[in-house]
């Protein structure tokens, strides 16, 4: 069953889009990521103009994240104070990111920049996460067999000597607010330019940089993603006119259902297992995008959503 997308200026299969939304929602609840790092490339692979894919995917992430965070909220796995500080930085970053996106679009370079950002960030983050997760699994197994207590996951460094310290009781941390604000700012820029919630960077950074417990990271990540991507969606709709409401609604419907299923599945897997699985998915998407960048396109020109409005 085909449906026409007015902003993307093309027809798509309804059930295919619903299925993609459900898959991304599943990842949202399972890993604590918005899923945009996977959905945006998939939409581009289907022929959706990159600018529309970025703007519209931000809208879908909002709904799937709301659905996922509600499930984690009921289990008490959301650090509200940390989430609000991350959101503050995210708002600042998303404002700057949308303006940068508009400038690049005017130059006609936004498609290339989107693809390069995905290859670089997914390759680096996925590779580091995979290596660390494998090491953690091996170390956990050795310590379990030897009966030795596990070492603390996070070690204090000079970063924790920064000023403006805040106590985060739910995460059992006492660290500088500069860290989460800076992290939120970076994620806000990525949300605007790449159409992602930033969870693929936020989750490992919250674990290894901020030192948060894995059990709290997923829910808190989803909490800040809601507000940052909502702001990014609003700005894209009003400044760049790249949000396709029809496409967003189809993705939302599938995403809400998938997020609830993912949240239930997440409690059955260990933190290290979740990180290995997420790292593999990130690397697969990175490889696919990298191959597409260096191969000759089937069409030398693209139409729609590419000019100024």
From TrEMBL:
Pfam families: TauE. It comes from the Bacteria. Its main location: membrane. InterPro entries: TM_pro_TauE-like, TSUP/Inactive_protease-like. It is a multi-pass membrane protein. The chain crosses the membrane at residues 12-38, 44-71, 83-104, 110-131, 173-201, 207-229, 241-262, 274-291. Keywords: Cell membrane, Membrane, Transmembrane, Transmembrane helix. It is found in: Cell membrane; Membrane. Belongs to the 4-toluene sulfonate uptake permease (TSUP) (TC 2.A.102) family. PANTHER family: MEMBRANE TRANSPORTER PROTEIN MJ0441-RELATED, MEMBRANE TRANSPORTER PROTEIN YTNM-RELATED. This is Probable membrane transporter protein. It comes from Magnetospirillum sulfuroxidans. The lineage of its organism: Bacteria, Pseudomonadati, Pseudomonadota, Alphaproteobacteria, Rhodospirillales.
